[in-house]
Amino acid sequence: MKKITKATLAAGAGLALLLGTGGTLAYWNSSASLGGATITAGNLALTQVGTGTWQIQHTSAAAPEPVADISALRLVPGDKLIYTGDYQITAQGRNLVFKADIAPGAITAATTGNAADEKLKTRLTQSADYTINGVKGQTATIKHKSDNSGTYNAKIAVTLTWPFDQPAGTSPAEDNPAKLGKVSLSAFAVTATQLDGTTTP
What we know:
Structural class: mainly beta
């Protein structure tokens, strides 16, 4: 009995000495690797669908007709031009909320300071219809919120009108200076911008 006690005490003393020296006391451990995982970001992209189309309608015509080459067209008083463009927004993301906007464009003189260009710019009037995701309007907030990809459509329809003898009795004084004038239809833009999904109502 005494021998066993002494041996036990001696072993305990040896353990205390080993710990006290700051030595390499071994201990059990184990580790495991995380399973392989691929994390993928979502998407918000905007593309034009096909090519925009032009149509023309004169005051005497019952319906507009297509214009194959807008650069070859020569406009006259009483004409109405219609441009239509289609766009598609692709969205993907569990918490994705975004705003789609259509910025109104402007009619500008092809060459600033050119008398005919500047006069034609003043003779043309502009109106436009906008549709986003099937709803008329220039802006829309869309809550996609899905890991699956989805698409949303936007359409612009712009009408340019050269009134015939308006105000009454003013042509040819008003319209003659616009002969051979050139204008540009620019600055129309469709945008898609992410919003903070936690604060969007």
